[in-house]
Amino acid sequence: MLEQIKSTAAYIQSKISMTPEVGIILGTGLGGLVQEINIKHTIPYEEIPNFPVSTVEGHSGKLIFGELGGKNVVAMQGRFHYYEGYTLQQVTFPVRVMKFIGVKNLFVSNASGGVNPDFEIGDLMIINDHINFFPSNPLIGKNNKELGPRFPDMSEAYSKTIIAKAKKVAAANNIKVQEGVYLGLSGPTFETPAEYNMVRVLGADAVGMSTVPEVIVARHMDMPCFAMSIITDLGVPGKIVEVTHEEVQHVAAQAEKKMTVIMKELIKEL
Ligand code: HPA
Q1: What is the tens place of the pLDDT at every residue in 88-98?
Q2: Topology of 2-269 in CATH?
Q3: Does residue 235's CB lie within 6 angstroms of at least one atom of ligand 1?
Q4: Bridge-partner residues for 41, per DSSP?
């Protein structure tokens, strides 16, 4: 895998003339942050050697390089999900490559179902920890010490320093933010009421189908991570209604302006 990572990184570096220091993964309906980037280069996933190709609706599939909040960034417009049939190694390959082209901090966004009864649809949640409920782990297999340790520490999966700054930025911009634990599972089914209840009992505040694999791989390589969820639906007893991908995209698009402000201002302050 190391050879593939290095050759993909070399390909990308031959196409760009900058070193991105922040990597951003944009979730469902959250592509709008791209409008804030002063774009220098765009590379469609199809052109990148060893990159999987994104399939799900609402994910367009390009790497975008440019300047945001005074920093050089690379954004993944469209991410890879386990439920599409990729292995967790494929899902997280772009994070490996980001590290090899110079990225220091990883920022992630997603849409998720809220299971904390205090949450409302459209809320933003800063992820302060996660539960890996995927059926596997992206680090399973032979470990390469050049990438990271065999048994990576996960005591601070989400950077406390960045979270503290994000809360200040949110307050300064009058944006309400929740904070909590994200449980990541495979999907593609949304949860049954009994499963939402299980997620809550297990100690999570929100549930979704992404983010956890990417953050595990970033932490393996010692990259500080920051992630935010938009609560697009509620898995709370008495509030459970039919969920559709369209509704998830719609709510995410409505709430994304608030998230964009936080991400942009936060990147300025890194
Ligand atoms: N469950 C899982 N993933 C999701 C949800 C949900 O309720 N909402 C958005 N992504």
Answers
A1: 999 999 999 99
A2: Rossmann fold (3.40.50)
A3: yes
A4: 65
Type of residue found at 245: H
Protein residue with its CA nearest to atom 3 in ligand 1: 208
For the stretch 14-63, pLDDT in tens is 999 999 999 999 987 678 899 999 999 999 998 999 998 756 554 458 99
With 0.90 as the threshold, say if the pTM is over it: yes
d(CA 230, CA 253): 9
- pLDDT (average), residues 243-250: 89
Cβ atoms within 10 A of the Cβ of 134, count? 20
Rounded Cα gap, residues 204 and 243, in angstroms = 19
DSSP state of 221: T
Q: How far is CA 26 from CA 55, 174, 178, in A?
A: 15, 23, 19
Q: Which residues is 67 bridged to in the sheet?
A: 38, 72
Residue 136 carries which DSSP code?
A: S
Q: Please indicate whether residue 113, judged by its CB atom, sits closer than 6 Å to ligand 1.
A: yes
User: What residue segments make up the domains of the chain, in order of their start?
Assistant: 2-269
**What is the distance in A from the centroid of ligand 1 to the CA of 184?**
10
101 phi, psi to nearest 5 deg: -105, 10
* The token pair that represents 27 in the structure block: 């979730």
Token couple for 76: 């993944």
Gyration radius of the chain's alpha carbons: 17
